[in-house]
Design a protein that fits this description.
Strands 1, 4, 5, 8, 11, 12, 13 and 14 form an eight-stranded antiparallel β-sheet that branches. Strands 2-3 form a two-stranded antiparallel sheet. It has a two-stranded antiparallel ribbon with strand order 6-7. The chain has two helices and 14 strands, in the order H-E-E-E-E-E-E-E-E-H-E-E-E-E-E-E. The chain has one domain: Pnp Oxidase, Chain A (Roll), CATH 2.30.110. The longest helix has 8 residues. By secondary structure, the protein is mostly beta strands.
């Protein structure tokens, strides 16, 4: 068998242009057909805040007397980390992050100079944000789909740009052990 060259092995994805979210996990048939890909939100993400990475495997080294190397080793896969900053306080993002029941519409009835203000109040709940995240590349011809995700949100005042209110999302993938957790797709037509 001939050696494959770097050019033959090139299968590149770069330049994230969008991060899409849907609350539903994907369904994948035994024939490899994905159904249920229907993103609900095109989430604004702060540049350079999107972080997706699998950590190094946790390797257990088993040694025996008289041998310099391992007798045997075993490993657990590294944990996946997923995090990003969403610079918006839009009602839909707040409901996704903290739950529908955590967001309440509010108006100021008596407040002098502030009596004509209205907006949202948020009860900061520890809500698990589950679902599917889709990273779209710059050319919009490839997708990286993160299935089975589990994230938690927190509100931050980002000191960049003189204080932007944002919602940070951090978490991982909770693999079910049967459906793919990370999916790489290319446009076919």
């Amino acid at each position: 068998m001939a050696i494959k060259t770097k050019a033959e092995l090139a299968d590149k994805f770069s330049g994230a242009s969008s991060l899409l979210y849907q609350s539903a996990k994907l369904t994948i048939s035994e024939q490899g057909v994905i159904s249920g890909l229907a993103p609900q939100l095109d989430v604004p993400v702060k540049v350079d805040s999107l972080n997706f990475e699998q950590g190094e495997p946790d390797i257990e080294h088993y040694k025996v007397i008289g041998l310099a190397g391992d007798w045997v080793q075993s490993a657990e896969p590294g944990d996946i980390t997923l995090g990003f900053r969403v610079p918006t306080k839009h009602t839909d993002v707040l409901k996704m992050a903290f739950g529908n029941d955590a967001v309440q519409a509010l108006t100021v009835a008596e407040g002098g100079d502030y009596s004509d203000y209205a907006g949202n109040g948020v009860v900061l709940k520890n809500k698990k944000v589950t679902g599917t995240w889709v990273i779209v590349n710059d050319a919009e011809d490839q997708l990286v789909i993160l299935n089975n995700t589990s994230l938690y949100a927190s509100v931050v005042l980002d000191s960049d740009a003189k204080g932007v209110i944002a919602v940070d999302f951090n978490g991982s993938i909770e693999s079910d052990g049967s459906t793919p957790d990370i999916i790489f797709l290319k446009k076919t037509a």
